[in-house]
Every structure is written in structure tokens, then in C-alpha cells.
């Protein structure tokens, strides 16, 4: 089931998110991680909720770069934590 | 925001660990230090990058960036020290190999480390203006490994040794060399230059200095150049394979300086194989090679050009002062043309049509052609020969080719008016004796002269052609109206020449025989009847006659003779024997002409229709002439006429020169008047300069002559001298 061009991102609460490699590459940090070879990266400090939002962001970023200019909505409760993650991930 | 949402809006605590533990930094660093070790020991696969990244991230976040950075420096430095040692330990040939391998590994490690420490790279380093990780890695490599004394000198030595080996023909590992030089370049252009390139160039210079010395002692010029070219190509190839492209220009410079520039003069002057020999033997390939190589060094081409120019000038000067050569003008001019062709070919095929060389060739030709004052005459004679017989049966294009070449020589002449004079004379002779090979060729040349020198130059020449045509028409008219009258009498054919167009001949006396006088009068009356107000005078020195002669045994011949000769021979109808004095008295032909005419009648083998007593080559006043009954000839028609245009004898030459000088005077005066009319006031030097400029397309005026003309004009009140300044002249209207 695991195709070569996907990666699995695992959150602190052990939620697994499978996304395309292209999407993951939006984050330069993830792109640099050697675990990319293995196809899965664990983020013990990022919760599932945040990680989910981040994956959504990846896809939105891809869409945006291809010309589809939509808005990316962020729920206010998430904002604080959501600030730290990108800083960490260089996104 | 709605009330509901407000409730859900909570600020939660930072999920990140707050540092309470002072040993936190130390612990975290230890993890990272360990990781770096593992990376250098090729155990990276067991590491979790995310974890390491997170650790580094945390350190920086909690203000331990400094510790992280200095720790990195220390760790990396110690690893590199180890690596240095292992490289140094490598024996002989393995040294480069080991260095290369370790370099590749270091790069990979550096990459991974950079990835882990990316957060620090992004935030801490710019803030503190420290060197980024990647650059740091390179710098440390440079300082710890490359500039480690033992390694540095050995590296340099081995690299240079490899180059030396390759130069002597050995095969070396080019790929390895390439990796090493690339490494040096990655470390910074100054590293490449200081650690390698500088020494490479020095050593190469020494190498080529020696080699060129060897070669020049043992090879001739052509071989030497081949070798130089080969070495040059080798170096260029070497650069493309394993050196930085920017080194190409520098190393080619070195080779060119050592092999070409230092030995330039010796090569060119080399006996038996130098530049002159190559030119003489037409070694186009060698010449081409010399041109290409010398072009790269300063003054290389100047040297070739100068040597070639002086050689051409010498050859030309020799040709022009060789009395043997000058005896045959046609041959002489042909030699000049051949010389020009030869050099043109050299310049086109070996010197890439280089304009500067063309110019040098042209100026050389201009220089020596004008050394001999008879050049204009000779060129005209050459043309004359071609138009009489040389161009018979030649295609139109080839005719044009020859004429263009003649024009080219004409352009070099400074005294074009002298040429004009001779050309007119020779053309007149050609037209009047009907000896021109091709009317089209004649006209073609006139057109070329007109294009070159203007209408004035050729107007008289064209007048001559017109006269010939008109005369034809006149003769037709004459025969039509008088044809019946002639009957058995002599046949007359007249060419009427307009005085101004044809070369002036002094009128000579000559009594025409009675048999001719009749028809001559008839023609005169006919002509003057249709053209009133004109004066006709017979030019007895320019005509020809065909005589039917019967000799002793009844053999008949038709003799083609000049008018003078006709007059003399007709006398023998009434007498068998005549003295010189008698002949002179009756015909009244001028002495020198008469002597020449008698000479060709009596002293030339095969044409001696007269016998002379005493038998000798020259005509004396006391000679007697008899009709030669025993004359025989294979041919029915015998030509004893005046020969074709020949080079003038010295006195004739002087005479022509004088006439040319006389003709120049009015031209100079006209130029002076023109200039003064425009300028009103001008000083002496400027007048001379202006006059020279105006007349240079025809001839080079002598400043002394110009001065004389100015004085003559002052006398005739065209100009006056300024009262205050004697050197200033004023135009008088």
C-alpha cells in the first residue's frame, strides 16, 4: 500500500498522516531529514491537531504555487502553537 | 467573536520544555557531539535526524547557540586533525587518492551536519555574524588539512610532478587530478591560485624555457613552430581536462612567452629555414603556422611584417636596377606581376588576408617601382606587347584579368603623366599600323584608366579612336566619289588625325615620289571640299606602303615598308645605283631617319632588298646603294616596315622626359592659381603642400619647380608677395 512517493508523518500522540512527498518537501527541514529515505518521520513534540493543520498547509501551499489562490483558514485557538511548528520546520 | 468561541479560546501553555535543568545544555550538546562522531565514522544511518534537529533547535531557542557553535568548531577540528594524520601517513602514489576520498567523505558529513544544524544556520548565525556551517566546514578543511604544513607542500609537489610526467609523455590519472583541483577551487579561488596555480605557472615557465632552448638548438624554424604549436594545444587540452578554465589564458600566455616571444627574432632570422626562406620556397603551411603563433605575442606580427617588407623592397630594388632585366621591358614587367602574385598568394593563404600585410606589400611595391624612372615607359610597353600579340586568342575574362593586373601596377606609379605620354605614343603606333589584337581590349583598358584617373586623362585617347572611325567613313566617301578615277594608279588609304589628340610629331620634310602625288592631291581636294577651314599636312614619318617588286630572276615579292622607305625604293625604278648623298638630296628626308631607313633596307639579313657598298653595319655618308637583284625570300609578302614600339634609346628618353617636364609646368601653375583663388592669402609651405596634394594623382611635383612657377606667376601679376612677410602670397584678381 505504501507507494514510493509518499511519506508518513507521525505526531506526538501517535497519529499517522500519510502525505505526498511533494507536499512534505514544502518544509525544507523535512526535506533534509534522512528519515525521508525510510518514508516516515516522527515528531514527538507536535500534536496531531497541529500536525494535521500543517499537512493541510502543505497542500494549500502546493495549490497556491500552481496558481490557485485561495485563502488558508486558521482557527484562532490553534494560532499560538501553530506559530511554533513552522518555526521548527522552516515552513 | 461570539461568546462561544471565547470560551474555547484558551492560551495553553508552551508545550516546549522550559529549561530548568542547567545541565540541559550540556546533555543536549553531548547528544549532538556524539552524532557528529557517528557521522564522521560512517554510522549515520542509525541516527534519527528529527531528534537531532530538534535538539539543535532547542539549544538555539534557549540561548545556547554559542555553545553549540563553538562545540561544533571544536569537534569538527579534532576530526579533521585525525583525517590530516591519516592522509599524511599515506605513501607515495596513494596520497592523492586518500586526500580525495577523505574530501568526499567530509563533504557528505558536512552536508548532514548542516541539515541537522539548519535552525542555527538560519537564525543564530546571521544574528551573530558568524560563518555559516557549510562555509565553516570548508574553511576548517582548508586550514586544518590543506594548509597543514606537511600536506600542503606534498600536495603541491605531487600535483606539479604529475603535470611534469604528463608533459614528458606519461599517462596520469586525470580524473583524480580533476577532483583535487576542483576541491581547491571549492575552497576558494585564492586557495586554488596560491596553493596551486601560481606554482604551476612558475614551474611551467621554467619547463618551457628549458625546452624551447633545447628545441631551438636542434630544430629548424618550421619544426620548431610545429613543436610549439603541439605544446600549446596540449596545454589547452590539459586545462579542459583537469584545470580551472580561467587557467587557460594564463598558461597559454606562459607557453607563448617562453616558446615564441623569447625566440622570435632568432626564429625569423634563422638561416636556411627562417621567414625569408619560407617565403622564397612558398611553404604556406609553415607560414600560416608562424602567423597564428606570432599573432598571440605582442609585436610578433610586426616583426614578420617588417622582415617581409624589407625583403620585398630589396628584391624589388634588385629587379629594378638589374641592367640585364631592364633590357627586355616586357619580361621585366611580367616579373613584377609574378612577384606581386606570389606575395598575394602568401598573404591570402598563409596570412589570412591580413590587411596590414596587404598594406605593407602595397607600400613596398610603390616604393621600388618608383625607384626607376623608366617604370612608366616599361609598363606601357608591356601593355603594348599584350595588345599587339600577347592577348591573341585569350578569353575575355582572362583579358580582363591581365588588364586589371596592369591597372594595379599603374596605381603604384607616382609619375602617371609619364605613363600617359608613352601610352599615347604606343597606342598611336598600334592604331595606325592596325596591329591591335582586340578593339574591345583596347577600349576596356581606356575605361579602366578613366575610372582611375578621370575623364581628362582619357579624353585624348578616346579622340584617337574616334579619328580612326571617322577616317574609315571618310575613305568610304572618297572611294565612292573617286573610285572610277583611280584605275591602275596606286591605292590610297588615309587616316585623318586631329592634331590635339595624337602625340605631337615634328613635321619632317619628305618628297613623295611623283607616282603618289597625284592621288594625294585628289584626296586633299576631296577632304577640304567637305571640311572647309581645316589644314591638312602629310605625316610622312608615320605611314606605310605596300610595294610590288620584281627581282633579278623574275621573282615577285610584295614589300611592306614605311613611307620613307617607299620614297627611297621608288628612286631605284630609274637608277640601279645611287649614292647616299644623292638619295638624301632627292628625298630630303632628315638624316637620322634616312640612315635608319637605309639600315633596315640594306643591312638586315633576310630583308636586304638593297645592297650597300662597302658592306658594314652602319650607314656612312660615303656609302653607295644598289638594288639587290639577288634578293630572295621564302615569303611572298615581306615586311620591312618600322618595328613595333621599342624602349627608347637614352637620348630619346631624355627628350621625352623634357617634354613631360614642360607639360607639367602649366599644370602646376593651374593648380597654384586654383588654390590661391580659393584661399586668397596663403604662405609658401602651405601652397607647396596643397599643390602636391592636388597633383599627386598624376605626378609628384618638385618643390623647386613649384617655387619657380610661383615666381613666374608673380611676374605675370597673378600673385603678389605680401609687403610685410616675404613668405606670404596674395591672389590678384
Automatic annotation (TrEMBL), chain A:
Pathway involvement of the protein, from the record: Protein modification; protein ubiquitination
Nucleus among keywords: yes
UniProtKB keywords: Nucleus
SUPFAM superfamilies, per the entry: POZ domain
Location(s) in or outside the cell: Nucleus
Pfam families: Skp1_POZ (PF03931)
GO BP: jasmonic acid mediated signaling pathway; protein ubiquitination; ubiquitin-dependent protein catabolic process
Signal peptide span: none
GO cellular component, one term: nucleus
Ranges where the SKP1 component POZ domain occurs: 6-59
Keyword match Ion transport: no
Family: Belongs to the SKP1 family.
The protein, known as: Elongin-C
Automatic annotation (TrEMBL), chain B:
Superkingdom as given in the UniProt entry: Eukaryota
Domain Cullin family profile: 374-602
Gene Ontology biological-process entries: ubiquitin-dependent protein catabolic process
Pfam families per the UniProt record, alphabetical: Cullin, Cullin_AB, Cullin_Nedd8
GO molecular function annotations of the record: ubiquitin protein ligase binding
PANTHER family: CULLIN
Entry's family note: Belongs to the cullin family.
Entry protein name: Cullin family profile domain-containing protein
